[in-house]
Amino acid sequence: MTKGLPRSAGGRLIRGLPALGSVAAAIVLWEIYVRLSGISPLVLPAPSRVVEQMAANRALLWENTLPTLSATLTGFAFSVSIAFALSVALDFLPKLRRALFPIFVVSQTLPLVAIAPLAVLWFGFGLTPKILLVALVTFFPMLVALVDGYEATDPEIETLMRSMGASRWKVFRAARFPSAMPYFFAGLRISITYAVVAAIFSEYVGARAGLGIVILNAKNSFRPDLMLAAVVVSSTLTLVLFGVSALLQRVLLRWREAGQGQ
Amino acid sequence: MNALELRNVGVSLGETEVLDDVSLRVGQGEFVSILGPSGAGKSTLFRLLTGALEPDRGEILLDGSTLKRNATTFAFMPQRDALMPWRRIIDNVILGLEVQGVSRAEARARALPLFAEFGLAGFEERYPAELSGGMRQRAALLRTVIQARPVQLLDEPFGALDALTRAQMQRWLEDRWRGARWTTLLVTHDVREAVALSDRIYVLSRRPARVISEVVVRAPRPRLGTALPAEARAQEEELLNTLLSQTGE
Ligand SMILES: Nc1ncnc2c1ncn2[C@@H]1O[C@H](COP(=O)(O)OP(=O)(O)O)[C@@H](O)[C@H]1O
Ligand SMILES: [Mg+2]
């Protein structure tokens, strides 16, 4: 738990200042270097030029952000639902866990560079291969977060509930599931960042639209400025999704903030 | 009539023989304490009663008949308060009623009038992290007694509190108990606490546990906040010596 600085919005701003400052300094240095060295924008465009390109191509960027967002969210929702359903089954059937976990671990060792083209080959240029890739990348971290979270339940709480005559299912609902929520949200925040990367990569390998396609086309026409513009958009998208998960956690797990103001 | 009786109960956990031969009884409306060195098997004894564990030997009788699985006889207060940090105090307190199938509204209606008596008025909607140690223990105790089970099992309820809060809680419990006369089995390793609160005290040996002494405390109540009679003070001394003889040093 971070103590010391107040948890208010003002406190967060003050804590964020050094990070913002160093990012701003890096951008300024980059701009100065490009101007003084006279390096070609075909090799290294200045930040100002990237911003210009973002403005000039805002319609293009926006149109291609939506397919990426939709692949990310659909794939992620799919993987979280499966991970949740399976985590419940695994919690009730430890034998199943021992049987299936090795398979999931292997699924994490598959190189995306090989899987992505295969998925396009098998499922075409539509949304399906993107959803599958996003799910492949995010499924296991979400499953592990949930399973570990159930295991982290205070054994005294379980003993207490059993002494009250609670069924295994009631213990799961009232104790194990809520205990897993902080783990679930930690997994969510990390996985959502993987999800965006996976969606863009699978577009890059084969799609009709999306930020991955913008990057691919920009690369093929030697436009690093447009590539970087797409990168800024995709990073922003990731940060926004990360922020939304953090916000969701704050709203849904309000109890975690309880007692910290004293 | 004995509300609860254990006859020659023994149990091993894995390779460890924890309880050797424990026999004890708790009468209706009686306050009985179990004193024993740390690691003697006191919490294990409670696990046998709540059905988390089966005895290897011996019998557990309730009102004269054998304890049934899933019996609804005991309200158990674990060693640490085991409050759920994600539930508000009111919802923690009604957990047992909820498990019994009482609706949330009905359970809340039953619990709310008791908050003042347990020194928790105004904290119904707070989370456990917002309460002091003493308040948390009182909430755990309220969660225990509200189940209205025939026997309360309290496992070192004040063990984790600072000395001042503990003294305060002991007085408060004595006061509550004099009003309600819950049939209570208390586990403690605090000799003064046992003498102050109990009608009878059993002392367990170190592991594997046997009952090595049974003491009846006759001092008039309330006992806390006044000087104890000489007999009770002598009993305290004797119990402490018995316990110390079991710590192995
Ligand atoms: N699951 C277990 N397997 C083996 N030994 C155990 C287990 N649980 C507890 N024990 C041992 O049993 C003894 C009694 O434990 P416990 O009943 O918690 O003692 P206490 O009297 O302090 O409450 C301890 O020495 C402990 O190490
Ligand atoms: Mg114990």
Textual characterization of the structure:
The complex is a heterodimer of chains A (262) and B (249). By secondary structure, chain A is an all-alpha fold. Chain A has a single domain (56-255), classed as MetI-like fold. Chain A has helices at residues 9-37, 47-56, 58-92, 94-107, 112-123, 128-151, 155-163, 168-205, 211-220, 224-252. The longest helix of chain A has 38 residues, at 168-205. Chain B starts with a strand and ends in a 5-residue tail after the last helix. The longest helix of chain B has 18 residues, at 163-180. Chain B folds into two domains: 1-73 and 151-169 and 181-228 and 237-249, Rossmann fold; 83-149. Chain B has helices spanning 42-49, 89-93, 95-100, 104-111, 133-145, 163-180, 191-197, 230-244; strands at 2-13, 16-27, 31-35, 57-62, 65-66, 74-77, 151-155, 183-188, 200-204, 209-216. Chain B is an alpha/beta fold. Chain B is globular, with a radius of gyration of 18 Å. Chains A and B meet through helix 7 and helix 8 of A and strand 6 and helix 3 of B. The complex binds adenosine-5'-diphosphate (ADP) and magnesium ion. Adenosine-5'-diphosphate is lined by residues 13-14, 16, 18, 36, 38-44, 207 of chain B.
Summarize the topology.
The complex is a heterodimer of chains A (262) and B (249).
Chain A: H1 9-37, H2 47-56, H3 58-92, H4 94-107, H5 112-123, H6 128-151, H7 155-163, H8 168-205, H9 211-220, H10 224-252
Helix pairs in contact in A: 2-10, 3-4, 3-6, 3-8, 3-9, 5-6, 5-8, 6-8, 7-8, 8-9, 8-10, 9-10
Chain B: E1 2-13, E2 16-27, E3 31-35, H1 42-49, E4 57-62, E5 65-66, E6 74-77, H2 89-93, H3 95-100, H4 104-111, H5 133-145, E7 151-155, H6 163-180, E8 183-188, H7 191-197, E9 200-204, E10 209-216, H8 230-244
Parallel strand pairs in B: 2-10, 3-8, 3-9, 6-7, 7-8
Antiparallel strand pairs in B: 1-2, 1-4, 4-5, 9-10
Adenosine-5'-diphosphate is lined by residues 13-14, 16, 18, 36, 38-44, 207 of chain B.
